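Tokens in:
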């Protein structure tokens, strides 16, 4: 039994009525379930052990009767998610395991790569990118990463000009942009900032480089109200370009990208089913925060059903100003495992960093969580300040205005921040939270 992915039949789907969209998505979901339970050894066993009949699932609401999985299931070598023979596998992607030491293997077929290219092509189109653009992809395409591969395939499918810049230095990226005129930068916001700052330090103006759009990956650029955070506004000013938020992961093999309205990432009903659940795994309605649970559709190599991402967000169901009828996913507010209780308030570590980013006097920082002797959370912000006239009391006031509660603050050097958040130069994507509660 095989399932293909025909990109031609979904033209204009996002503009159809909600009922039409739901009907098509339901048909695709049923086919996905039948294929997955038939071909995936893991799901065949899971459904048998739980006495689940695939034929009983006839609509999206029925998904609530099916069990969840998460990264721990995928990291367990006893579980076999591969739904095709090894001869059908043409690409291998690796994602980190739950411990950070065991990589999770994601096997892709020819059909999956076609789907991946379509996914990113449509995402680029949604952001207004065309074949006339030149894309600077600041994400690694080597080392079995999916992200760089997806952006490359999407750009090629769009017939755009693609620069596979990867994880180079700020100097290398700036020189490449000047040599081959770039109109779109795709990368983490912190890297975009480093390139812009390098250009300014070199006496040049990044706003005159001809960049029209910034596609932000891996790091937040909007808050819960869908407003741009300070660092995103600063990036727009530096580059004279609009910034677009995206959300994706290797397990999803699907991108949620903003349209011209830039008010949340549009769901692609032909590519994925999204649910949000509370801490008791009960579904929540649009507008209510919950954990993002996904069922990617049309995948043949390693299909998944009800994968819990661990990310917290909410859905927006109002019709978008762009005219699309599809739901949108709000910004990721944080990771479920990173949710902290501090002085009676629930906060996510990234909100502390966001409250300061974009300020000229704030170089950067990271947050550590430890346990107090009474078992409560202790939160410590390590920050580097550029301006000696800025006091810790002023920093506290800035955080309090946005987050309501203030952590302990430890001032440190810019070198310490860079070494910590970029893992001594080994990473391009920042790590700004370190959970030490289990090790103290």
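Residues out:
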């Amino acid at each position: 039994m095989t399932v293909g992915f025909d990109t031609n039949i979904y033209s204009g789907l996002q503009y159809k009525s909600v009922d039409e969209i739901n009907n098509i998505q339901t048909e695709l979901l049923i086919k996905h379930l039948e294929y997955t339970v038939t071909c995936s050894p893991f799901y065949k066993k899971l459904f048998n052990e739980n006495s689940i009949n695939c034929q009983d699932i006839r609509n999206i609401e029925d998904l609530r009767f099916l069990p969840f999985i998460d990264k721990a299931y995928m990291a367990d070598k006893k579980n076999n998610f591969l739904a095709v023979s090894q001869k059908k596998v043409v690409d291998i992607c690796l994602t980190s395991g739950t411990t950070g030491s065991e990589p999770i293997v994601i096997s892709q077929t020819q059909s999956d790569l076609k789907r991946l290219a379509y996914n990113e092509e449509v995402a680029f189109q949604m952001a207004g990118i065309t074949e006339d653009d030149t894309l600077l992809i600041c994400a690694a395409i080597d080392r079995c990463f999916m992200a760089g591969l997806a952006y490359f395939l999407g750009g090629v499918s769009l017939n755009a000009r693609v620069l596979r810049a990867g994880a180079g230095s700020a100097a290398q990226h700036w020189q490449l942009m000047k040599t081959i005129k770039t109109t779109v930068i795709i990368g983490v916001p912190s890297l975009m900032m480093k390139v812009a700052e390098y250009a300014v330090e070199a006496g040049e103006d990044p706003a005159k480089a001809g960049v029209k759009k910034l596609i932000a990956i891996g790091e937040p650029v909007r808050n819960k109200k869908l407003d741009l955070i300070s660092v995103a506004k600063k990036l727009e000013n530096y580059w004279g370009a609009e910034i677009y938020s995206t959300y994706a992961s290797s397990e999803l093999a699907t991108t949620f990208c903003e349209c011209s309205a830039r008010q949340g990432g549009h769901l692609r009903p032909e590519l994925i089913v999204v649910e949000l659940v509370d801490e008791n795994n009960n579904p929540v309605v649009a507008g209510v925060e919950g954990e993002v649970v996904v069922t990617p559709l049309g995948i043949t190599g390693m299909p998944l059903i009800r994968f819990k991402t661990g990310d917290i967000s909410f859905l927006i169901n109002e019709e978008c100003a762009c005219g699309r009828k599809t739901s949108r996913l709000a910004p990721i507010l944080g990771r479920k495992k990173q949710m902290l209780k501090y002085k009676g308030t629930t906060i996510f570590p990234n909100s502390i960093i966001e409250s300061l980013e974009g300020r000229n006097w704030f170089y950067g920082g990271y947050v550590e969580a430890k346990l107090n002797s009474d078992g409560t959370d202790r939160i410590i912000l390590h920050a580097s300040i550029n301006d000696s006239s800025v006091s810790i009391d002023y920093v506290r006031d800035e955080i309090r205005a946005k987050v309501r509660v203030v952590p302990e603050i430890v001032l440190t050097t810019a070198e310490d921040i860079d070494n910590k958040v970029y893992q001594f130069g080994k990473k391009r994507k920042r790590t700004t939270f370190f959970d030490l509660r289990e090790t103290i």
